[in-house]
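Reminder: ligand-aware prediction takes two inputs, not one.
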Amino acid sequence: MAYDVHIIGGGMAGSEAAWQLAKRGIKVRLSEMRGGGDTTPAHQGTGLAELVCSNSFRSDDHENNAVGLLHQEMRELDSLIMGAAEVAKVPAGSALAVDRDVFSAEVEKRLSALPNLEIVRERIDRLPASGLTIVATGPLTAAALADSIGQATGADSLAFFDAIAPIVHHDTIDMDIAWKAARWDKGGKDYINCPLNKDQYVAFREGLLAGEKTEFREWESNTPYFEGCMPIEVMAERGEDTLRFGPMKPVGLDNPHWATPEHPNGRWPYAVVQLRQDNKLGTLWNMVGFQTKLKYAEQVRLFRTIPGLENAEFARLGGLHRNTFLNSPVLLDRQLRLKSAPHVRFAGQITGCEGYVESAAVGLMGGLMTAAEVAGRGWTSPPRTTALGALLSHITGDAEAESYQPMNVNFGLFPPVDAEVRKKQRKLAYTQRAKHDLQGWLASA
Ligand SMILES: Cc1cc2nc3c(=O)[nH]c(=O)nc-3n(C[C@H](O)[C@H](O)[C@H](O)COP(=O)(O)OP(=O)(O)OC[C@H]3O[C@@H](n4cnc5c(N)ncnc54)[C@H](O)[C@@H]3O)c2cc1C
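Here is what comes back for the chain with flavin-adenine dinucleotide:
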């Protein structure tokens, strides 16, 4: 069948994009390598939109939770993934969880019923030189295609492992304890510094050594520890002072909270934890050099022992996984197109979003953008006050490119709501504003 759009990868994002395009009458070829003799290290079967691990789409609370809000916005846009999830739903409290086999079968059934869509079980090894294309091959993109993407984008712009340092909501950092400064006062007050004295440092290091870690999966066990992204606990193992000479180095950082008449600028702490701004809004700050394989509960417990982070809320916790993703803020335009080859769009986790729902949401937007392009229409992004818009803005330019790592949807990606409202009902204020703004966007689209 001749086609208008070629989608590579029939996972969460590719399936959703194919649905959004083909139901609008656009001819689509969907190439999925599973079922054609290939697979990934994590997939078990050949079904489209296979859930590789948990069967949960996380919270379905669209009033108080950012991913629940994203569910709701996707439903408004007739999402295939949300529609199939409704059919495959299993009891899970306020979460949305599914029977994974029923879910995948429902996705495949709905897509197979579309006359404009051809599903081909084939592996694609090169980025097509021409023709509208959506690449949605996910965190485990097959090697030859990853090479081809690397050639098109530059080797440094395509990562094969994430090395995620925790990210903290700015308004939960205690600035009566922490302070803003750059080392030796150079380059502006770009970092938030959390000071530790000797006892606190020693206890913190012991906590890192004793903390329960997650294991690598068998196929991840050869994860290379690049010096620049070594887990903090591995560094701690190397010696008592390794961290103090590495990411927790205190030199050149006078703590003004410790000022005395003899030391009016304050003193250097024994060690520091530094946080660097992670998004243009300044709502999210990442803990520099704190990538870790500690279990999530352990991370929260231990990182809240750091002075200034006692009440920290984390937008993302640390991790290290095999994960193929682009430096999207640099490489992609606001419509997910490769700046150097605009016939190619990327969607799903390969863009640096994280999670089943986020991947499908980016696939949904990629499908809508491509549909508009085929029809010769312009496309306006959803407002960044919506979950869809916040996620898209983050990926396509608002995240800091230098520290770009995969990200779940969270309220820290949204422009802050009015400070007064925020104290009382912060989450509700975000979701109510998002719902209002999404309706405005839908009405004008
Ligand atoms: C091991 C693991 C566990 C995860 N667990 C969770 C979890 O529990 N919850 C969660 O929310 N997220 C999880 N994720 C993260 C992520 O949300 C999922 O990987 C999600 O499926 C990503 O959606 P996607 O559409 O981008 O990629 P995928 O769903 O992986 O789809 C990509 C598709 O492209 C195909 N493909 C790859 N290369 C080619 C090629 N060259 N030609 C043709 N087809 C190709 C693959 O076979 C696959 O079907 C996990 C990721 C991994 C790797």
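The first strand starts at residue 5 and ends at 8. The chain has a mean pLDDT of 94. We will return to this case in the review session.
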